[in-house]
Amino acid sequence: MKSLVILILLTMISLSWAQNEMAGKCMTCHKLKSPGLYKQWYESQHGMHEVTCLDCHGASKSEADAFLHEGAYIATLVTPEDCGNCHEKEAREVQNSYHATAGEILDSQDAYLAHVTGGEPAAILGCESCHGAKVIIDDNSPNKLSKKSWPNSGIGRINPDGSKGSCNTCHTRHNFDKTQARQPEACGKCHLGPDHPQMEIYEESKHGNTYYTNIDKMNLHSDKWVVGEDYFVAPTCATCHMSATPSKKLSHDVGERLSWTLRPAISVHKDNWQQKRKNMLTVCQSCHGSAFAEGHYYQYDALVHLYNEKFAKPATDIMNLVIQEKLLENPASFGNKIEWTYWELWHHEGRRARHGASMMGPDYTWWHGIYEVVQHFYFKFIPEAQSFKNKKVDDYIKNLFEKDATHQWLSTNTEELKKGIRSGKLQQKYQELFIQDK
Ligand code: HEC
Ligand code: HEC
Ligand code: HEC
Ligand code: HEC
Ligand code: HEC
Ligand code: HEC
Ligand code: HEC
Ligand code: HEC
């Protein structure tokens, strides 16, 4: 019995010795072969805490993407499940977040658009570079990863081990630094552009403004990073959507503080939205009074209602009528002009307006937002719908313009409208948008 214990102990020691020797070999060779990569690792918290190449890249022979490399089985991919061996909480939160679903876009209208009207290379280097795609195994490739699906570090990448995402989307390798992830640039690769310009909005807002002029006061290198305690000059994307507040812990679930989803054609509240809004208010209240922060939500809600009620719902009704009445000439979706007009109305301009309003970007709320919605609703979308000369469609539009007080301006004279603005009568037509949702 005793000798068996000793034998097991000896085997364990020699195994871990062999493991250490192997791990040492990785570094020794890569220090020469890929010195940039080696130095990123060497200076990182992992390098300092002796988390080696093999600790992350080591794999068992049975894993789908494992291959033999210099005497050890390794995998090129280091998935959230692999990181989760040491960072269980972060890996769990990432898996439960909306980010993890981002690779499941193949059935979306957007994916149809990319594949049908564009073509596969555009989907790979466009959509899938942000969203992630399924990583395909190719046994003939030296690292077993199909060249069509690797490189890829999309936020919802579907990994061979079943886990979703890639932690290095935000924690750029091989530093894996939290200082870097706290900065807006970590999100800016994806959250920008015509359909979700969060980065541009942040840059134009007072928050971005104050951040960029005071970066040196952000205490970005601090281990603990609680808003109001460790820094106070400005919030970053991470501050509002992830990082700790005096009463909330850091969370890798970026949806925990959102009350609306502004992505669909017509905005809806998220489940349990009141609680999620309270979570966000704990961030604001580190720097603002609660009347100020709640005032922001009052104005923001009204803008979402305005977009929904005045433009998105009627446009969606009209588009549905056009489809039901079989007025479209070409059989394929996106084969007809009005479909593009409707799409840009909600997916681009309508989102920009809502995103601008949610994050204090006035230019996106109005000039890149509602202004364009207005112009394209009245002077592109409606004329295109009327061009079909269909009675149901025409009646809908006539009724909308006659009965809906917010559209009656079209048939009113300018002087009267101006008088209405001065007296406040015109503004009253929008009063019911300032309601509190239940
Ligand atoms: C004797 C030198 C040497 C040793 C030892 C070595 N590597 Fe490498 N490794 C390389 C070279 C060279 C490449 C690049 C191959 C190429 O360019 O195709 C590479 C590639 C890799 C890749 C990328 C594979 C791919 O193509 O996607 C990973 C990951 C990797 N090594 C990890 C490790 C780990 C972990 C160890 C320790 C078990 C290790 N290496 C040991 C030389 C070495
Ligand atoms: C903390 C975990 C971790 C450690 C430690 C680590 N890596 Fe990596 N490595 C990654 C991740 C994550 C990726 C990206 C793979 C992915 O997207 O899943 C990667 C990718 C790579 C790649 C392929 C991508 C490229 O840019 O060529 C090579 C080569 C590589 N690592 C080598 C090494 C070597 C050599 C070491 C040790 C000096 C090392 N890694 C240490 C996590 C790690
Ligand atoms: C073998 C265990 C192990 C693995 C696997 C591992 N880490 Fe770590 N990680 C550590 C240790 C130890 C530290 C340093 C102590 C700490 O902060 O907890 C650390 C620290 C970190 C930090 C904080 C760095 C900072 O700036 O303070 C980040 C971010 C991180 N790891 C991300 C990752 C990611 C992403 C992966 C997978 C690609 C990964 N880790 C894989 C053990 C590991
Ligand atoms: C620059 C990075 C980027 C590119 C390229 C990109 N997306 Fe997105 N996509 C995003 C981001 C970020 C969001 C979330 C925006 C938000 O929540 O405001 C998103 C949202 C979506 C949504 C809405 C998901 C939902 O649940 O409402 C779909 C579907 C989608 N994208 C599909 C695609 C497809 C398909 C392509 C290619 C035609 C594509 N995206 C190109 C970054 C990108
Ligand atoms: C959407 C971007 C994003 C993704 C994806 C992401 N992280 Fe993070 N992570 C951050 C930010 C931002 C911080 C720093 C927050 C802070 O300090 O307030 C952070 C901090 C960390 C820390 C330090 C935690 C601490 O308590 O100090 C670890 C460890 C970590 N992340 C691991 C991971 C792992 C593992 C994954 C993948 C499963 C991952 N992260 C994916 C943005 C991200
Ligand atoms: C690699 C691309 C990428 C990066 C980097 C990225 N995101 Fe995202 N993000 C997305 C995509 C894509 C979606 C939409 C997910 C979907 O369609 O399922 C999204 C969705 C979100 C949402 C909406 C979540 C919800 O529950 O509705 C928030 C908030 C968010 N991201 C914040 C951030 C923050 C903060 C960072 C930086 C710390 C960041 N993201 C970094 C691609 C990215
Ligand atoms: C001052 C805090 C704050 C900052 C800084 C901030 N956001 Fe937001 N963000 C919000 C608020 C508030 C909302 C709306 C929440 C709601 O609907 O309840 C929001 C909404 C979002 C959404 C959801 C959009 C949708 O389509 O549903 C995404 C994605 C997002 N922000 C990403 C970012 C990114 C990326 C950055 C940095 C470039 C950033 N945010 C900076 C407060 C902030
Ligand atoms: C780290 C501190 C900090 C946090 C957290 C923070 N803000 Fe601010 N906020 C500021 C500063 C600084 C200003 C600029 C004040 C000024 O104009 O003098 C500002 C300005 C504003 C403005 C005025 C914008 C303008 O153009 O005048 C609004 C509205 C606002 N914040 C709302 C919020 C909301 C809502 C939250 C939470 C989702 C929040 N803030 C979180 C620091 C913060």
Give me some keywords for this one:
438 residues; two-stranded antiparallel sheet; two-stranded antiparallel ribbon; 20 helices; binds heme C
Give structural notes.
The protein has 438 residues and is an all-alpha fold. It has a domain at 290-433. It is 53% helix and 2% strand. It is built from 20 helices and 4 strands. It has helices at 2-33, 35-42, 45-48, 53-57, 80-84, 88-96, 109-118, 120-131, 178-181, 185-188, 198-204, 206-213, 237-241, 273-284, 290-324, 337-358, 362-386, 391-403, 414-423, 425-428; strands at residues 67-69, 72-74, 260-261, 268-269. The strands form 2 sheets. It has a two-stranded antiparallel sheet with strand order 1-2. A two-stranded antiparallel sheet has the order 3-4. Strand 3 (260-261) and strand 4 (268-269) form a beta hairpin. Helix 7 packs antiparallel against helix 8 (120-131). The longest helix has 35 residues, at 290-324. The chain is globular. The N and C termini lie far apart (70 Å). 28% of the residues are buried. One heme C binds at residues 26-27, 30, 37-38, 41, 46, 51, 53, 55-57, 76-79, 153, 166, 168, 173-174, 176.
